[in-house]
Design a protein that fits this description.
The structure holds 2 protein chains of 2 kinds.
Chain A: H1 2-33, H2 40-57, H3 62-85, H4 93-115, E1 130-133, E2 136-139, H5 140-162, H6 164-174, H7 176-181, H8 186-208, H9 221-232, H10 237-257, H11 260-277
Antiparallel strand pairs in A: 1-2
Chain B: H1 8-30, H2 33-58, H3 66-82, H4 88-110, H5 115-135, H6 137-140, E1 146-147, E2 152-153, E3 156-157, H7 161-184, H8 186-196, H9 198-203, H10 208-234, E4 236-237, H11 244-257, H12 262-278, H13 286-300, H14 304-317
Antiparallel strand pairs in B: 1-4, 2-3
Chain lengths: 291, 331
């Protein structure tokens, strides 16, 4: 019993790490530009299809595909920012929400038109062989996904802490005016933020698509990741990471204790509960005010 | 009190409305069944759009949950009619009432949310309700779907396209007048005040929580009523229909038509329901078209169809007043 539970936790953690990556994309864009990108999940979906095309149709090698996919995803992020979001940066939040939902609808249906709605298999370098570590059994894939996600997060941390550009991005998140006065090109930082967020979404897509499924509705994973970000406290980077991981574990356990249908909705129930009971999440400052 | 003479714009609106009303009443004499079927569907969407516009356009509360209210109305009516054999009229009323109750209950926790948080919470609600339709198979027949016999009210069975058309037309017309009275009265002004500035509205003595939950309940009532009508009109409920994309369709209708405009609800629905029928074979492209319309409307026509028309009427013929884009929507 305890052993099965432990392996459920580990495989939940693997999915949770991917949620954490997507949630990180949400939060980075939100912190830098005050925009919530409802199309974040669509980067994940699009990257899944891009890597599927490169791997299966063009037969390129896995790591090359990986690099090309995240690059293309980053470019897609910049394109979305330039074309859809930037012209309405000063419009009401409502307009931006609707515009990004519209963009995600466009991306999702385009994928449906090109690839159809059947589930496609996406290969991965990680095998599904079991590993035993003490009492816990998990797959190589779980371990690979967790390790890879943590590595990406560590790289991001170092980028923000150590590089000049990373510092400029943190400065922009704190105060756009002050950053601009210090000679930071805020509009370039905005584009770069979208590129990075979309690229992280791309990594998430390549990692998660072999685990769950690859179809045009994969983008709804963005809603789950958003729930993770809310759980951790929206606007907080550690919150996004821990919230995402926690959510992956909770979701997997609810699937284990109940059934697949409950597993699907557990995230959304949790999302509403957290929003209602503690909108500031575990680590965040209160994002909403009381009426 | 001296009654002010109606302005030219008001008189033109009345004349146009009356002409349209007569045309719609006479239409079944000339049109074939297909046209009547499309228009019946249109009326159902107009009902949802009216309700959604009260909540989102007038009160400034984004909802991606209207597919769920629509589903709740449809399934409540279907279950009451098929399993409990309630009279059709009672089913429709009960379904609308139940949807309103759920809307009220969802509105309570949503008092704390606004903007994107509200959008996400209501999106979650749509996904939960759709999953529940599949899970509660004892009541809803799950993925098999459910068939519903035609409505029968006061001895008339609404089983032909013509009769369904008249039923939907009458209900929609009545609810349009109700919505008009609501937005022109105290409640409508309260909704607008909340949208423009919650704190100022509260400082004026407005009970925010009460009016916001009223907006939720009334809006859900419209969606539930539309769902119930749709159940009797279509005769079959498929849980796949009540997906997140339906919520997207509803919101696209009011964005394109014009926020905070009843005429906009009608125009938006007319455009987005009739257009795909004209471009038959749109099927896989439908979602793409909706998405593009959302983005392009926000970018290039923020007033929507109704607002743009009103602006042109003002600029070219000096009719009415110049519409402005609500600045604080969704804050």
């Amino acid at each position: 019993m305890a052993e099965i539970l432990a392996s459920q936790v580990v495989s939940g953690l693997a999915t949770g790490c991917v949620y954490a990556l997507i949630a990180l994309g949400f939060v980075l864009i939100f912190k830098a530009t005050d925009v919530v990108n409802f199309a974040q999940g669509e980067f994940v979906m699009a990257s899944g299809f891009i890597s599927y095309t490169l791997l299966i149709r063009l037969g390129l090698s896995y790591w090359l595909v990986f690099l090309v996919t995240i690059t293309l995803s980053g470019i897609m992020g910049v394109a979305l920012e330039r074309v859809v979001v930037r012209p309405i940066m000063n419009a009401p939040i409502f307009s931006i929400v609707i515009a990004t939902i519209g963009a995600s609808t466009v991306l999702r249906s385009s994928a449906g038109i090109v690839y159809g709605y059947d589930v496609l298999p996406l290969p991965t370098v990680f095998s599904k062989d079991p590993i035993r570590l003490g009492a816990v059994t998990f797959t190589v894939m779980d371990a690979g996904v967790i390790g890879f996600s943590l590595a990406i997060m560590a790289m991001l941390y170092l980028f923000f802490k150590l590089t000049r550009t990373g510092t400029a991005m943190r400065a922009t998140a704190q105060s756009q005016t002050a950053a601009r006065l210090m000679g930071v090109s805020v509009s370039r930082i905005f584009s770069l933020t979208w590129a990075i967020s979309a690229a992280i979404g791309g990594v998430a897509g390549v990692l998660i698509a072999p685990i769950v499924y690859l179809d045009p509705n994969l983008g709804f994973i963005g809603v789950k990741a958003f729930a993770g970000a809310i759980l951790g406290g929206f606007g907080s980077i550690p919150g996004a990471i821990i919230g995402g991981m926690l959510l992956g574990v909770l979701e997997n356990l609810s699937g284990y204790f109940f059934n697949a249908g409950i597993k699907q909705v557990s995230t959304y129930v949790l999302l509403i509960l957290v929003l209602v009971v503690r909108p500031s999440g575990l680590f965040g400052a209160a994002p909403v005010r009381r009426v | 009190v001296i009654a002010r003479a109606p302005s030219r714009a008001t008189m033109l609106t009345w004349l146009g409305g009356a002409a349209l009303g007569v045309a719609l009443l006479a239409l079944p004499l000339a049109a074939d069944n297909y046209v009547l079927y499309v228009l019946t569907r249109l009326f159902v969407y107009v009902l949802v759009a009216l309700g959604l516009n009260l909540l989102t356009g007038y009160t400034g509360q984004v909802s991606l949950g209207h597919a769920a209210f629509f589903a709740i109305g449809a399934y409540t009516a279907a279950v009451l009619a098929e399993a409990l054999r309630w009279p059709s009229a009672l089913c429709v009323v009960a379904a609308a009432g139940f949807a309103a109750l759920v809307g009220y209950l969802l509105g309570l926790p949503c008092l704390r949310l606004s903007g994107l948080y509200l959008a996400m919470a209501t999106l979650g609600f749509t996904l939960i309700v759709q999953e529940m339709l599949l899970q509660l198979a004892v009541i809803t027949h799950g993925s098999e779907g459910m068939s519903v016999r035609p409505a029968s009210i006061l001895g008339v069975t609404f089983n032909t396209d013509g009769r369904k058309y008249y039923l939907a037309l009458v209900v929609t017309a009545v609810m349009l007048v109700v919505a008009r009275n609501l937005v022109r009265g105290r409640t409508g002004r309260a909704f607008l005040a909340i949208r423009e500035n919650e704190r100022a509205a509260e400082a004026m003595g407005l009970h925010l929580a009460r009016y916001k939950t009223i907006a939720f309940a009334v809006s859900a009532l419209y969606a539930g009523l539309a769902g119930a009508l749709s159940a009797f009109m279509v005769g079959f409920l498929d849980p796949q229909e009540f997906s997140f994309f339906l919520s997207i369709q509803f919101i696209t209708i009011i964005i394109l038509g014009g926020l905070a405009s009843l005429l906009g609800s009608v125009l938006g629905a007319a455009f987005l329901i009739v257009l795909p029928e004209l471009l038959a074979g749109l099927d896989v492209w439908q979602a793409l078209v909706y998405g593009l319309i959302m983005v392009l409307t926000i970018l290039f026509m923020p007033l929507g169809l109704a607002g743009t028309l009103r602006r042109q009427a003002y600029r070219w013929w000096g009719l009415g007043t110049e519409p402005v884009i609500p600045r604080r929507l969704g804050h």
